[in-house]
């Protein structure tokens, strides 16, 4: 099994000016790792990463309790994702039911 760092090195591309361009797979993996750390397996079963666009990670929530948990811990989740990806390109989370 590959480590997250190995996967990140292969998935992160560099644009012309040295800015990092993240793809969906990398952002999804980092977000799932953070959600697992914060909310555990049950949280990860009820929260799915649907896509990443323009700095926002879109989450599909299956129960309203988890939407509330995401809203309460939004800042923590975003900061941990940024820390894991070593970039500040993640602007926020968009939550859908």
In short:
The protein has 4 helices and 5 strands. With 97 residues, it is of the alpha+beta class.
Molecular structure report:
This protein has 97 residues and is α+β, with helices and mostly antiparallel strands. The chain contains 4 helices and 5 strands; from the N terminus they run αββαββααβ. α1 crosses α2 and α2 runs antiparallel to α4. 16% of the residues are buried. The model has no long low-confidence stretch (mean pLDDT 87).
- In angstroms, what separates the terminal alpha carbons? 33 Å
Could you report the average pLDDT, rounded to the nearest whole number? 87
Q: pLDDT below 50 for ≥5 consecutive residues: which ranges? A: none
Q: What would you say the CATH architecture is?
A: 2-Layer Sandwich
Q: Give the strand order, joined by hyphens, for the main sheet.
A: 3-4-5
SS-derived structural category: alpha+beta
Determine the CATH topology. Answer: GMP Synthetase, Chain A, domain 3
Order of helices and strands: HEEHEEHHE
**Percent in helix:** 40-55%
SSE map:
Blueprint: H1 4-11, E1 13-14, E2 20-21, H2 24-46, E3 47-53, E4 56-61, H3 64-72, H4 74-85, E5 92-96
Parallel strand pairs: 4-5
Antiparallel strand pairs: 1-2, 3-4
What labels would you give this structure?
two-stranded antiparallel sheet, alpha+beta, 4 helices, 3-stranded mixed β-sheet, globular, GMP Synthetase, Chain A, domain 3, 97 residues
